[in-house]
Design a protein that fits this description.
Elements lengths: L8 H6 L1 H8 L3 H13 L4 H12 L10 H13 L2 H10 L1 H11 L24 E5 L5 E3 L3 E5 L6 E3 L3 E3 L12 E6 L4 E5 L5 E4 L3 E6 L7 E12 L8 E4 L3 E5 L3 E6 L5 E8 L2 E5 L7 E3 L3 E6 L6 E4 L3 H4 L5 E8 H12 L2 E4 L7 E7 L4 H10 L4 E5 L2 E5 L1
Parallel strand pairs: 3-7, 10-11, 20-23
Antiparallel strand pairs: 1-2, 1-6, 3-4, 4-5, 6-9, 7-8, 8-10, 9-10, 10-13, 11-12, 12-15, 13-14, 14-17, 15-16, 17-18, 19-21, 22-23
């Protein structure tokens, strides 16, 4: 019997074990196929192609007819690279309809307006709301709750209403921009009652009211999304490098302007993640998975993660498991609006544990240095960390 590591994409797409994994993923199945990819790196490309074949015919009840698999395989292999995209566009109707029935969605839409993703460095000490080209509205509090679902206006912190213009149908075209500086956070309720927790050093652009066909927002930075389910209105989050499309689910996106990678972690539901440069090869994420895309990479890397370590910031604490010091202290610096520089061997120190973000920054810093080999000192307005 041939080893699974010797299979090509066509053979994988016909294998019952592989089909079962793609259509009914579990932690055990994910670990099995992840282990195969780690031990046999050459099969990774075959697995990616085979997954696209299987996902093209979801939902699956009694397997995929071999003739249909052969037809897809023949198309893929008979086309040159530039023709490969044309083929996937030709089967888009089958792909989108089948995945919609199965509960997921495949993203096949180009981003229309990159200007929404132009990052505005917020040097102010306040969170800012830019509404309908008016001067920004400033919020001094460390955390602000803004609710756009009320017909009377924007509800601020559950107790006051901010009226920034009429709420007629024309307002569907009005775009709002929230800019959150380091040290601040905003809890946002959209017009469809979706909830978004926007982290420090981030910005989000969104319409005051969604149209009847789709819901789109634009993110630079990090946010935790809890999306209201609407079967006929997909929700799309655009970042500089990728787009995430869902019907209703919970997920965290990290896409800061000063980092050379983007991460999408799925908490619940099912999402499709698309690289802006590879529109016809979306990646489907399942709960507990992270899709990571480096700036210069073409492929989205998927792996199992501990979801809580990526979403705990929204609950007021940070949870780490063998995280490098620079990653930990970068998060803390953003949260408290502190400039932190790590030098020398301190970059090799790893952290495991929990940090309470409700504590004063100096108390938190002392806790870190007391429980590790790190030391800190102040240099002007900067904190230097060394071992």
């Amino acid at each position: 019997m041939r080893k699974i590591s010797d299979y090509n994409a066509l053979q994988l797409a016909e294998d019952p074990r592989f089909i079962d994994w793609v259509t009914n993923p579990t932690i055990e199945k994910d670990e099995y196929w992840q282990d195969i990819q780690e031990h046999y790196p050459l099969i990774e490309k075959e697995i990616l192609t085979a997954k696209k074949i299987v996902e093209s015919y979801l939902p699956i009840e009694n397997g995929i007819p071999p003739a249909r698999i052969q037809a897809v395989w023949h198309k893929i292999n008979s086309k040159k690279k530039n023709q490969f995209k044309i083929y996937w566009n030709s089967v888009a109707a089958i792909l989108v309809i089948s995945v919609l029935v199965g509960g997921g969605i495949i993203f096949k839409e180009r981003q229309k307006n990159n200007t929404y993703l132009d990052f505005e460095e917020n040097v102010e000490a306040y969170s800012q709301l830019y509404s309908n080209n008016q001067p920004p509205i400033l919020f001094e509090q460390n955390q602000v709750d803004l609710d756009f679902s009320n017909e009377q206006g924007i509800v601020v912190n559950n107790d006051s209403i901010l009226n920034i213009g009429d709420n007629e149908k024309v307002s569907e075209s009005i775009m709002e921009k929230i800019v959150v500086p380091y040290g601040k956070r905003i809890i946002l309720t959209l017009s469809d009652n979706s909830r978004i927790c926007i982290n420090s050093g981030s910005q989000l652009v969104f319409p005051r009211k969604f149209t009847k066909s789709k819901r789109e927002v634009y993110l630079v930075g990090e946010a935790l999304f809890d999306i209201t389910h609407k079967a006929k209105m997909p929700f799309v989050v655009h970042t500089k490098q990728s787009s995430v499309k869902v019907l209703g689910t919970s997920f965290n996106i990290k896409a800061y302007a000063d980092e050379d990678y983007e991460e999408t972690v799925l908490v619940s539901g099912k999402v499709s993640l698309s690289n802006k440069n590879i529109w016809d090869n979306p990646t489907v994420l399942y709960p507990g998975q992270m899709g990571k895309l480096a700036s210069e990479a073409e492929q989205i890397r998927v792996r199992k993660v501990d979801v809580e370590t990526y979403t705990s910031w929204a609950k007021g604490y940070l949870l780490f498991k063998n995280k490098m010091a620079n990653e930990v202290l970068q998060q803390i610096g953003r949260y408290y609006n502190k400039k932190i520089e790590i030098i020398g061997s301190a970059n090799n120190v790893t952290f495991t544990g929990k940090l309470d973000l409700t504590e004063d920054f100096d108390v938190l810093l002392k806790r870190i240095t007391k429980t590790s080999s790190l030391r800190c000192f102040y240099e002007n307005d900067k904190i230097i960390i060394q071992q």
